[in-house]
Design goal:
OB fold (Dihydrolipoamide Acetyltransferase, E2P), 18% strand, seven-stranded parallel beta sheet, single chain, 20 strands, 37% helix, six-stranded parallel beta sheet, 693 residues, Rossmann fold, alpha/beta
Length: 693
C-alpha cells in the first residue's frame, strides 16, 4: 500500500493547469475522472476549490494507557502482532493488530469484515489510528488509519482532518488524497480575484494562504479564517455581477418615462375605498420616481401576508395606464389571477380603462379576440397566468409588467414577460418574506421595498397544534364558529386517495365533513377541477352560500374572504413553513377572532410556526432548517451555489462584500484594475456586461 502521509511529488506543469481536466492530477484516471464529474469536479481548479464540509478533530494523541471505554481516541504505536479471527455468532471476519507505544503500553486495533486489510500490514509498521474504544480499555474499533514511513506526518488519522463531499465509488480518504494532490500541484497557480486593498480592509487571507488554511488547517481558527475568505469571495463575485447588471440597466438602457402628475395621483388614490398605510404611501412614492426616471424600474416589493402589496401594485398598473400605455399583471394560479381581474374591474367600474383576463382556460374564439385587442392596443390592462407570456401574445405599447408571487415562476418565465415590450418597467412582488441576506443574494440587482406595516384592524391569528386525541374537541369548536356565522377552510395535501401515502385526501374529507356539518353547506375545491368549476365554488364561498371549503393547496395565495375565521390544516408535517404561513394568511382578514388549527405530526418547523405570526422570523427559520436551495427550489430560483458561505451566519460578510463590489463597479466598471476578477466573470453570465465575447 502506498504511504498516505505525502502526496506524490508534482511534475513540472504548464501555467494553465488549473483549467485542465482533473485527469492531469496524479492519481486520477478515466474512471475516477467520471466519478469526480458527478460531484461537479471537472477541472483541476474545481478539485482545488472542493472545500471541506466539516473537520474531524484528531489533534490530541491519546497514550494507550489512557484509553477510556466508548470514547473516541487517536493513537500511535508499532505493530507487534497481526491476528485474524471471526465473530462467535455470525462468523464475520475480524482483523486484530496489537500495537505498543513508547511507554510500552499495549492496545488492539480492530477491523470488522475487512479481511483484505491483513495484506497491508507488517510487524514493525508504525501506525496511527482513530476510532472508538470498546471492550474495556484495550480494543479500538478503527474508523481511520495510516501507516507512516520514516519522517512522515499523518494526513488522514491525526490532526484536524478535512472531510469532503464524496460519491459512490470514491471514499472520503480517496477524495482527501486527490484534493491534497491538487493543492500541492496547483495551489501556487491560483489567481487572486479579490483586490489586495479589499483583502487588507476586511482582514482576509490571500488565496494561497486561504487554500492552506482550509485544506490543511492547524487549528479550528485557521480553518474558519480560510472559510470566511472563500465565503467573502463567493459573495463578492456574485455582488460584482449584480452591480454590473444593475449599472447596465440604469445607465445604458432607456425606458419610457411614465410621469404621474398630481392630478393622476389623486384620481388613482380616490379609487381605493380606504386609507393607505404609511408603508404603502412610501412604496408608491418610490415607484412614482422610478417610473418617471426614464430608466427601467426593477423593483422587488416584499411584505408579509396581508401587508397590502396588491394595492401598491394596483397603483403602479393604473399609473402606467393613466399615462396611455399598456400594463400586464401575471399571477401563478388561475384563482389568484381571476381574483385580481375581479378586483380591478370593481375598482375601475366607472372608468374607461379596458381590462382583459387571459388564463389557461380561455380558449378558442374568445382567446383570439383578446389577443387581437391586446396587439391593437385596445386592452389597457391584461391580467392572467403564465398564459400571458406565450409566444402569440403581443402588445402594442407595453410599459409595465407586474409579477405577483414571483417565487412561483422560473427565471426564464420572468424574463419572457420582460421581452414583451421595449424594456418595460418591472415590479415583482412576493408575500413569502425573504430574509435580507437571501434577498441580497438573489435579487441584489433589484431595488428592494419592504412593506413593514399591516393595515389597521388586521388581527393576529391564534395557532394551535392539536394531537390526534384532541380532534373531536376541535370539531365541536369549529361547529360553534359556524353557528356564529363564520366560515372555515379545511386543507389536505392530496386530492384523492393514494396507495403509497397513508394520508387523508380532500375528496375523502369532503365526504366525512359533509356528514359532520349536516346543517351547513360543505364544498370541495382542488386543482383537477376545470377553471369555471373552481371559480363557481370560490364565488359561492365568497358570498357565504358555502360555509366549509375543503381544499388542497390551490387556496395557498390570493384568496380573500373576510368572514372566514377558521383554517384547519391536516397532515401539517407535509407542508413547508412558507406554505403554512400562506395558508394561515387566508384568515384574519375580517374583524373576527381567527384560529389556525394543525393536525398531524409535530416537528421543529411546526413549533416555530405555532410560536409566531411574523413572516420574516418564519422565513429565517425556514432558511436555517431547510437551506436556501430547498427553500426556494434551486432549479427555479437562480440561486448561485454557495460552498463556503452561510447566508444567516455570514450576513455581515455579505453586506461588506456588497458594499465593496458596488463601490468597485462604480469607480471601475470595466474592472481594468482587477484583471483576474474580470477574466473570471468574462467566462460566465457577466461576459456581455463587461463587453467581452
Amino acid at each position: 500500500m502506498p504511504k498516505a502521509g505525502k502526496p506524490e511529488a508534482p511534475v513540472p506543469v504548464e501555467p494553465d493547469l488549473l483549467h485542465r481536466p482533473v485527469q492531469f492530477i496524479q492519481g486520477v484516471g478515466p474512471r475516477r475522472a467520471k466519478l469526480l464529474e458527478g460531484l461537479g469536479l471537472r477541472t483541476v481548479d474545481d478539485l482545488l476549490h472542493h472545500l471541506p464540509a466539516r473537520y474531524y478533530d484528531r489533534r490530541q494523541m491519546t497514550p494507550l494507557a489512557g484509553l477510556r471505554l466508548a470514547v473516541d481516541a487517536t493513537v500511535q504505536g508499532v505493530v507487534t502482532n497481526i491476528r485474524s479471527t471471526t465473530t462467535a455468532r455470525q462468523k464475520l471476519p475480524i482483523l486484530e493488530l496489537t500495537i505498543v507505544d513508547q511507554e510500552d503500553s499495549r492496545a488492539v486495533l480492530v477491523w470488522y469484515n475487512q479481511p483484505f486489510r491483513e495484506k497491508e500490514f507488517r510487524i514493525g509498521d508504525t501506525i496511527v489510528a482513530s476510532g472508538k474504544v470498546q471492550s474495556g480499555r484495550t480494543h479500538l474499533r478503527v474508523a481511520e488509519f495510516e501507516i507512516l514511513g520514516e519522517g512522515e506526518s499523518p494526513v488522514h488519522a491525526a490532526g484536524l482532518i478535512p472531510s469532503y463531499a464524496t460519491t459512490e465509488g470514491l471514499s472520503k480518504r480517496q477524495i482527501r488524497s486527490l484534493v491534497r494532490q491538487a493543492f500541492v500541484e496547483a495551489a501556487p497557480l491560483a489567481p487572486e480575484v479579490i483586490p489586495k486593498e479589499l483583502l487588507a480592509r476586511r482582514g482576509l487571507s490571500g488565496i494561497r494562504q486561504a487554500l492552506h488554511q482550509i485544506h490543511e488547517p492547524g487549528t479550528p481558527e485557521e480553518a474558519e479564517a480560510g472559510r470566511r475568505r472563500f465565503a467573502y469571495e463567493e459573495f463578492f463575485r456574485l455582488q460584482t455581477e449584480l452591480a454590473l447588471r444593475r449599472r447596465h440597466l440604469k445607465r445604458e438602457t432607456e425606458s419610457r418615462r411614465l410621469a404621474v402628475s398630481d392630478t393622476l395621483n389623486f384620481r388613482i388614490r380616490q379609487l381605493f375605498p380606504f386609507k393607505l398605510t404609511g408603508a404603502q404611501d412610501r412604496a408608491i412614492e418610490v415607484i412614482r420616481k422610478d417610473l418617471a426616471s426614464g430608466k427601467p424600474m426593477n423593483r422587488l416589493l416584499q411584505g408579509d401576508v396581508g401587508a397590502g402589496k396588491t394595492v401598491v401594485a394596483a397603483y403602479a398598473l393604473l399609473a402606467a395606464v393613466g399615462c396611455r400605455a399598456q400594463a400586464v399583471l401575471m399571477a401563478p394560479t388561475e384563482i389568484l389571477a381571476e381574483q385580481h381581474a375581479r378586483t380591478f374591474r370593481r375598482l375601475l367600474g366607472t372608468s374607461r380603462v379596458r381590462v382583459a383576463f387571459l388564463g389557461g382556460g380561455v380558449k378558442g374564439k374568445k382567446r383570439e379576440e383578446i389577443l387581437a385587442a391586446v396587439a391593437k392596443g385596445e386592452v389597457d390592462l391584461l391580467i392572467g397566468t403564465h398564459a400571458v407570456i406565450e409566444r402569440d401574445v403581443r402588445f402594442k405599447d407595453l410599459a409595465l409588467t407586474v409579477i405577483d408571487e414571483q417565487q412561483k415562476f422560473g427565471v426564464l418565465q420572468r424574463a419572457a414577460l420582460g421581452r414583451k415590450g421595449a424594456r418595460p418597467h418591472v415590479l415583482v412582488m412576493t408575500a413569502t418574506p425573504i430574509p435580507r441576506t437571501l434577498a441580497l443574494t438573489l435579487y441584489g440587482d433589484l431595488d428592494l421595498t419592504v412593506l413593514d406595516e399591516l393595515p389597521p384592524g388586521r388581527k393576529d391569528v391564534r395557532t394551535l397544534f392539536v394531537p390526534g386525541a384532541g380532534k373531536r374537541d376541535k370539531i365541536a369548536f369549529i361547529l360553534q364558529k359556524l353557528r356564529e356565522g363564520r366560515q372555515a377552510y379545511f386543507v389536505y395535501p392530496l386530492v384523492d386517495e393514494s396507495d403509497k401515502l397513508a394520508l387523508q385526501s380532500a375528496i375523502q374529507a369532503h365526504g366525512q365533513l359533509t356528514g359532520l356539518f349536516k346543517e351547513f353547506r360543505v364544498a370541495l375545491l382542488h386543482g383537477r377541477m376545470k377553471p369555471e368549476e373552481k371559480e363557481a365554488v370560490m364565488e359561492e364561498f365568497r358570498v357565504g352560500r358555502v360555509h366549509v371549503l375543503v381544499s388542497t393547496l390551490v387556496i395557498e395565495v390570493g384568496i380573500d374572504v373576510p368572514n372566514a375565521s377558521v383554517m384547519v390544516i391536516d397532515h401539517c408535517e407535509r407542508y413547508g413553513l412558507s406554505q403554512l404561513h400562506q395558508l394561515r394568511g387566508r384568515i384574519g382578514r375580517g374583524p373576527f377572532e381567527s384560529v389556525c388549527i394543525l393536525f398531524g405530526k409535530t416537528s421543529e418547523r411546526i413549533e416555530v410556526f405555532v410560536s409566531t405570526n411574523d413572516g420574516f422570523r418564519i422565513a429565517e427559520a425556514d432558511l436555517r432548517i431547510r437551506g436556501p436551495g430547498e427553500l426556494l427550489g434551486t432549479r427555479q430560483s437562480g440561486l448561485p451555489e454557495l460552498k463556503a458561505a452561510r447566508l444567516l451566519e455570514d450576513a455581515r460578510l455579505l453586506e461588506q462584500a456588497r458594499e465593496d463590489a458596488f463601490a468597485l463597479v462604480a469607480r471601475d466598471p470595466a474592472l481594468a484594475g482587477a484583471p483576474e476578477l474580470r477574466a473570471l466573470l468574462s467566462r460566465g453570465r457577466a461576459a456581455s456586461l463587461l463587453h467581452v465575447g
